[in-house]
């Protein structure tokens, strides 16, 4: 046990040292991320596991960001998608309600702060906007409440639907929200249509902390809260009621599970996490437009949940991390590396890479690679990388 603990701590230290020594190396940063997974899975004392993860995320990650700010941006994006995946995991993984329009709740939260945290609200309500940056913290609650209410409004008409029919309705709902954001610039200009809204106010950063570090710690704090809420819900009678509905709706109803209330609660809980992250996203990006909330974003979050393991909290975290890193770091890193070889005039087996068409850049095949991953997962490991204990027993 002691030797294993020392090895895990040494791996974390070595990976951090590798990133500091080679700040532009994608492999070094992937090694650091992999060391976090090793720490989580290793058979070491629980207190040591959480202590090492705390050191890695609270101390080492901001230091790595000082060497390469892009890595801190990747970590922040991972945190945002982890919260989204955990929210969708409640709806799809626990309650078994296939939701293909989840990004709509993300958009609702983002636009709630974007409108009032920018001069855009002056067009509708007269003067007095944007609100002071401190209102951002109030709007974290507003975004949560508005998204939860939207989730209930979506849940009400689809209570009798299940399976493919529910998926089609939620897909339509996601598109309705995007189209509304695209067209609500007339007759009253609420969303500024396809031009989007900018500049959006950022919250006041305490102690003059740079915004990159500030948003990293804010997202990390929200992710911790979301994980704790998920864990409490999973172990509660509500979580067991959701699982009963997922396994057999009729049997659950016969056992006294209130279907209407539980389904609405699942939609509201899942949507609320997306609403909060939408507010953070709009403040972080300073600019949003309807193209930030397309159907493909919903599919991306669903892919994270399926890849990690439906109904599994660690699985949703891992799935969101893998997909986001693959998208933001690995594929783009491969494209940059390929461009460097092309610019250097490298020739392989008599073929000059300078003649390679730009259509073959790896970053342009992001969706295809995600699709292939999902197909392979469904064939070889349908329970996901880190499945929930119950599902692991069913499919093991």
List keywords for this structure.
1% strand, 396 residues, two-stranded antiparallel ribbon, globular, mainly alpha
Helix and strand topology:
Blueprint: H1 2-21, H2 26-41, H3 46-67, H4 69-94, H5 103-116, H6 120-125, H7 135-155, H8 163-183, H9 211-234, H10 237-247, H11 249-254, H12 259-285, H13 295-308, H14 313-343, E1 347-348, E2 351-352, H15 366-380, H16 389-395
Antiparallel strand pairs: 1-2
Structure description:
The structure is a single chain. The chain is mainly α and 396 residues long. Helix content is 71%, strand content 1%. Strand 1 and strand 2 form a beta hairpin. Helix 5 (103-116) packs across helix 12. The longest helix is centred in the last third of the chain and has 31 residues, at 313-343. The mean pLDDT is 87.
